[in-house]
Write a structure and sequence with these properties.
Blueprint lengths: L16 H11 L3 E4 L6 H6 L1 H22 L2 E7 L22 H16 L2 E7 L2 E2 L6 H11 L2 E5 L3 E2 L2 E2 H14 L8 E4 L6 E2 H14 L7 E5 L19 H7 L6 H16 L1
Parallel strand pairs: 1-2, 2-3, 3-8, 4-7, 5-10
Antiparallel strand pairs: 6-9
């Protein structure tokens, strides 16, 4: 029941602030879903200006355009706004304390939305994967093709989220935005259960083998301290998603089924 306009980077480059604002104002949509983001967490440590331009300045620009139009803004944010020191799932109102440039830039974007005065839903999600683009699943498939043994971090815990499930959740949410009782707010959306990166990798390889993909013989669990990266990552970034379930009746991401779906889609595309 909605007319959808999908724009690529070449059609709306969000970092070109004036041009992006002009195009949004011309389209005058009822709802803007901002799925843009500088997500290269380690690269952001060396490129803070670019990360902030995409994740903060561009977001402020989009939010201000939405405020002028009276449009809703649905914005995708991240579990990395938290420090990872909790032992229970993070609720939306919990104290933020990002530990890297990426998380800081995303939090700055969130605060810019709040300051704009537009109607908004900020949806924090985590560990997003799909059959498209570069993500943890595609990285594991690449490693499985070329390595007999891999080392995967086992002491970082989160909730994988299948991108298709996130899209379905947004479709449901958009249908609710015409209701007068929907208020602006922050929400969490992610996988229906938590795991470590090591557990996620093992599931990917197990399912991949059934479909004829290469898989390493050994998947070794290692500690974060053994795997040095430019950006520090939260040890625990499980999100409490009860609020979005209750307010919008969405189902959380069944990431195990999502892993199978993504692998099947890749298999189909390869033939």
């Amino acid at each position: 029941n909605h007319e959808m306009v999908f724009t690529s980077r070449s059609e709306i480059d969000v970092t070109n602030l004036q041009a992006a604002e002009k195009k949004i104002m011309k389209l005058a949509p009822d709802v803007v879903i901002n799925a843009t983001g500088y997500t290269a967490v380690d690269d952001a440590e060396q490129e803070p200006i670019i990360a902030n331009r995409v994740n903060a300045l561009a977001v402020a620009n989009i939010a201000n355009a939405c405020q002028r139009l009276g449009s809703w803004l649905i914005h995708i944010s991240t579990d990395y706004v938290f420090d990872g020191n909790s032992v229970v799932p993070y609720k939306e109102e919990d104290q933020t304390n990002p530990q890297n440039v990426y998380g800081n830039s995303k939090l700055t974007g969130e605060l810019a939305i709040l300051a704009s005065g537009c109607r908004y839903l900020i949806v924090r999600t985590s560990w997003v994967f799909s059959e498209y683009g570069r993500n943890f699943l595609s990285s594991m498939l690449r490693l499985g093709d070329t390595h007999k043994s891999v080392n995967i971090v086992s002491d970082q815990i989160g909730c994988p989220t299948y991108a298709q499930d996130l899209a379905k959740a947004f479709a449901l949410i958009v249908g609710s935005l015409g209701n007068d009782n929907v208020e602006s707010g922050v929400y969490h959306y992610g996988g229906d259960s938590s795991c470590s990166w090591h557990e996620f990798a093992c599931l990917i390889f197990e399912e991949a083998k059934h479909l004829g993909f290469g898989a390493p013989r050994v998947v070794r669990a290692i500690k974060t301290s053994e795997y040095h990266t430019p950006a520090s990552r939260p040890a625990f970034s499980v999100l409490d998603c009860g609020r979005i379930e209750k307010d919008f009746f969405v189902k959380l991401s069944d990431w195990r089924a999502g892993t199978r779906s993504a692998l099947q889609a890749i298999t189909k595309n390869n033939h």
